[in-house]
Each structure stands twice: as C-alpha cells, then as structure tokens.
Amino acid sequence: MNKLASRLKGRSELGLVALLGAVGVIVIVDAASITVPYSQSDPVGPKTMPFIVGGLLLVCAVLLAINVLRGGRGEAEAGEDVDLSHPTDWRTVVPLIGAFVLNVLLIDTVGWVISGALLFWGSAWALGSRRYVRDAIIAVVLSLGTFYGFYLGLGINLPAGLLQGVL
Amino acid sequence: METFDLLMQGFSTAATPMNLLYAFIGVLLGTAVGVLPGIGPAMAVALLLPVTYALEPTSAFIMFAGIYYGGMFGGSTTSILLNTPGESATVITAIEGHKMAKAGRAAQALATAAIGSFVAGTIGTALLVAFTPIVVDFAVSLGSPSYLAIMILALLAVTAVLGASKLRGFISLGLGLAIGLVGADKVTGQQRLVFGQPLLVDGLDIVVVAVAIFAVGEALWIAAHLRRKPLTTIPVGRPWMGKQDWKRSWKPWLRGTAYGYPFGALPAGGAEVPTFLSYVTEKKLSKHPEEFGHGAIEGVAGPEAANNASAAGTLTPMLALGLPTNATAAVMLAAFTQYGIQPGPLLFDNEPDLVWALIASLFIGNTLLLLINLPLAPVWAKLLQIPRPYLYAGILFFATLGAYAVNLQAFDLVLLLVLGLLGFAMRRFGLPVLPLIIGVILGPRVEEQLRKSLQLSAGDISGLWNEPIAVGVYVIVALVLAWPLVMLAVRKARPRPVAAGADVPRAPGSPATNDGGVSGSAAAGSNAAGSKNDGDASGAGPTGTDRGTLGGSGSSGDSSAGSDARRRADDIQHERENS
Description:
The structure holds 2 protein chains of 2 kinds. By secondary structure, chain A is mostly helical. Chain A folds into 2 domains: about 1-70; about 90-165, no CATH class. Helices cover about 65% and strands about 0% of the residues of chain A. A two-stranded antiparallel ribbon of chain B has the order 1-2. Chain B is globular. In chain B, about 70% of the residues lie in helices and about 0% in strands. Chain B is mostly helical. Chain B has 2 domains: about 1-230 and about 240-470, no CATH class; about 485-579, no CATH class. Chain B: It holds the Pfam family TctA. Chain B: Keywords: Membrane, Transmembrane, Transmembrane helix.
C-alpha cells in the first residue's frame, strides 16, 4: 500500500517532466519557424533567446527525470492553513475551478455583479461553507461594492451585463 | 548634503495629507495581509496593482511602501501567535516567539518584534539613503555588457542560491523566461509563442502573471490541503515591554540590523540567512542561553530586526539597478513598468520626485506602523479567526477582479486560470515561485541587453566581455555555479570539515566577519542533519531539502533549525564568495 502510494507520487512528478519537455520543444519549434534576414543592426536576432530558453527547459526536463527516477522529490509548500498530512483534496479543488470557469464564461454576458457574486458564493461553498444565505449576502455586497467602487473611485466600468440600466 | 536635500524634498511630497492617507492605508492593508494566513505582501501588491492604475504613481508607490513594511510586521505577529510562519523569513521568529507567547509573554514578544522592526527599518532605510546614490553613480557608468552580466548574476543567484533544490529553481526560471518570451519581439516585431492568438501579441500582462502565480495558485493550493481543524490562537493584550526586556532587546536589534541590511542588498541575500545568523549570534552571546528554545526575547528581537533590515536592503538594488531580489520587490518593479517608468540607475535622474518620495514614505510608513500597531495588536489577533472559506473565496474573487480590470477581457481570466494551475503545480512539486517571477520580469531585459551588447560589437561575441566589470561579474557567476561541485569534492575528501570550528569567537554585529557564525551554524547542522544530502549535487535530496517552514511549527524547532543550519551555512559560503 505504502509502496504503491510512493510510486504513484513519483510518477506524478514525471508529468512535470513531460510539461517541461513539451514547453521546451514548443519554444524551440516556434523560434525555428521565425524567418528573419541577418541584420547588421541586430546580430542576435529574435531567435537566439528562445533557443537558449528552450534548451534550458529541455535540459531541466532531462535532469528532473533523472532526479525523480533516482528518488528525488520536490517538497510541497507548507503554510499557515496548509495541512500536508492528507492528500490533495480534489473534491475542493475541482468545484473551485468550476466556479472560476463559470465566471469566465458568464462575465461578458451577465456582467460582473452576477458572475462575481456567483464566483464568491461558489468558491465559499466549494471550500466548505454551508451558511448559504449569509454567503449569498456577502457575495452580493462584495460584487456590488466592487462594481460601484471601481466605477466611482477608479473610473473603470466593469460590465453590467443583464443588469444594464438597473445599476 | 545633496542627498539630504533630496530626501527632505521627498518628505515634503510624501507628507501631503493625501499621500499620508495612502501611506496609512498601505500600512493597514500591509499588516492585515501579513497577518492573514495565505496572503503575503507580494500577493497584496499584485492584487492592488490594478486598483492603483487610477492613482498617481507617487501615491501608488507610497502605498506600496506601506504594504511592504506592513507585511513584514504582520508576518511576525502571525508566527508569534500561531506558530505557523507563512514565509521563510519569519521561521526563526516563530521558534522563540511562539514559546514566549505560550509562556504568557506574547505581549513582550510582539513588542520587541514591533519596536525591533521599527529600529531596524529606520536604520535600514537610512542605510538605503546613504548607499543607493553611491550604487547609482557606479551603475550609470556601466555599459550593456556589464548590465547583462549583472542581470545574469541576479537571475542565477536567485535561482541557484536561494531555495532548497537548484534544479527546481532552474526549472522555475526556465518557465518564467518562456512566459517572458510571449508576444511580439521588440526589435523585429516578429511574433513569438503567439500561436495566431491576437490577444497574445502584446505579451502576457505581468499583472495577470503575478496575480495568477501568487494569488490563484496559492488559493488553489491551500484549498487542496485546507487544515480542517482551526489553529488555536493565543489571545494577547496590548504589547508592552518591561525594563529588563528593553535591556535584553536593544543590542540584538542593532546586531540583527547589521546582518539584515547587507544580505538584503546582495543579489541573493534574502531574509532567511540573516535571520538565522542573527539567531545563532544571539544564542551565543546571550547571558541566558538556557532560555533559548523556551522563549528567549533575544531570539525574537534579533531575527525580527534582521528581517526588516533585509527588507530595506532589498530596495537598494531594486531602486539603483532595477534588480528585484525578493517577490515583493519584483512585483513593485512590475508596477514601475506598468506606469511606463524605466527602472534602473536613470530612475534617480528621471523621476527624482517619485524615488525620494518613496524613500521618505518608507520612514513615514515605519513610524506609522509602530504607532498604529502597538495598540491594534489585539485586533490583528482577531483577524486570524476569519472563516477560511471566506478568506480564500475572497482571494479568488479579488484576483479575478484585478486581472479582469486590467483590460476588461475574459481572455485574461483564462490566462489567469492556466497560470494559476501552473502556480498550483509549482507548489505541489516544490518549485520555488521567485525565480519564475524574476525570470518573467528580467528575461526581456536580459535579451535587450544581450542584443545591445552584440549590436555595439557588430556581432563579435567578445562584445559580451569587453568591459572589466562584466568580466569580474562573470567570474563570480562561474564561482556560484561551480561552488556546489567544489563543496561536493571537499565533502567527499573530508566528510566533516567544519565541525571543529564551533567555538571560534565571533565578532558581533559585523557581517563581514561572520566566520564564527558560519562555523557555529554548520556545526549545529552536522549534528542534526547527518549526512543524508551530502552526496547530492543538485541539492534535491528526498529528505534533506527541508526548508524549515515546517520546522517552526512543531516542538522540534531545535533539530530542524539544525538541519537548516547546514544549508544556510552553504548559502553563506556563497555570499562570502560574492562579496
């Protein structure tokens, strides 16, 4: 059991290796597709830096793969509210991301006041708050407050969306 | 005396009622976010960037200055009352501070931290005033090759010296540099990593990147591991100190300041090393060594002063050279660029009003902190009780709002989420955040100087080292890179080379002669840490990479401080190479 868990943990870090490798390859391929004539005023050109960065990423990917396979492991970050004794709680994270995505999809059509309130309420729910009414009141106050605060204080017009004309 | 006149002018700008109000808001906000778990000063400045667009740059930076020092102050409150330091710089404070709080001396611990922070912040800012113009005079004479070399040194130092694993530092740096590449090339207009997406042509907005990595990534990460049992906070009244406490505190404050400022000013100094050095020094010099580990006031006073002095030190390279060396400075630098202000030595010529007002407001902010926070400490302690769902939902809410308000594009929110997930993964796999953010900010400037250097030499590669200072800096770069290999060789030859030096007498208060501190701390480390990570060239050993953040949170404070000691001792060796 323990062994399996530790093997799985090692494997998840290999995903990071894949990500690094992919980013490195993309950076290099993208740079290679740039065509610029050699210019006396810019001997370095726009391709050099991406090649260096892509190379760095690929080297890091290889070294990380070796490191992980030899038992190396990145140490997860600790913090005041972080309890590393239990594994990643996807039941909190996935709904949280859901609330975030919902806001991205809705913000331009229904406006910030509604989508922002949904974002706060949904996030609070995902994080375990079950006082629905109080959460909703705080959410609406926050989103209305920021809407008017940005409009009056900073001159930034957040989208009013469905409530256009009401606000 | 010219400097003095400029500073006075800065005071007259900063002391207008409006600007004092911004300083006040900044100090309050900074302390609040410093106290709140999960939010640090870097995240606070990042979240506030969009809000400050509507402000005058001067007012905005006065507010940032308040947040910067306020955040440091708030962090120490948390570590004393909660014993779970949010950032590495306050780990050491937590060791003795929390013990004091438990023993019913929370008021004294908070008081010595607050007054020590004030003393160190004021002296540190005075040193900043004294040294920064000298650095500027030196820096304006530098050409592109030297600049390039210095920036490469800063990148490498932040990546390879700080943090537990060098490899993971470089990974983070590479990702940051890649993010910095996105957009149209400034010289040729060629599009890089744009993928036909017109919204990417202008590059990734640094505000979006900073908010994503610091705020969204952090909120998601904490959500994934949220502590279900709330931590117990120690209630506290108004901080105060007795005569005996004053007597035992003032020397550690001064010694801590002397450690903190120079380390903060170095490219990779940071606050961890000086706070640790200060702790070790105080333990050695104390008349009550038996109290260490059970709540010695010197162990709070010294490290806390070192922490704040290092924060002041960090501003020297940021203002004089445009080089950020900690996360908050990096975000503040991003704010300069957002205002179209070019950071670097010319800043003092082009924007003297802004710079000197900023420096003056550091003095003001520091004083405000002391005046406000001593009476408010019980209120701050209450902030720790805020329901966590609201806290983290609020962070996500304001992160979204901030990133959206920059361009009013939903696309920025997609980027925010993608980069936030990257920030989550980085925390999961132990990739440090700082190299990434510094890479995003310095990457484009490194490229610019690289191209300028070779442009001047018409493509001749020797144009990269045709200035003596550039050569000198590259020698240091080579030493930084080669050092682990040298240490590895030395360790293989002689397994415990430094353990004998534990009783070398130290010269207090002088960072230039820190041999005693080094050997003392290394010796402490060799007892506790054993030889687990000795043969690990990349510094990524499975167990030897304890950054000490957990160390402050258990009763095992002493032994983990020991294992930190070994790594710190290594770091310090680097520093001595650098200087």
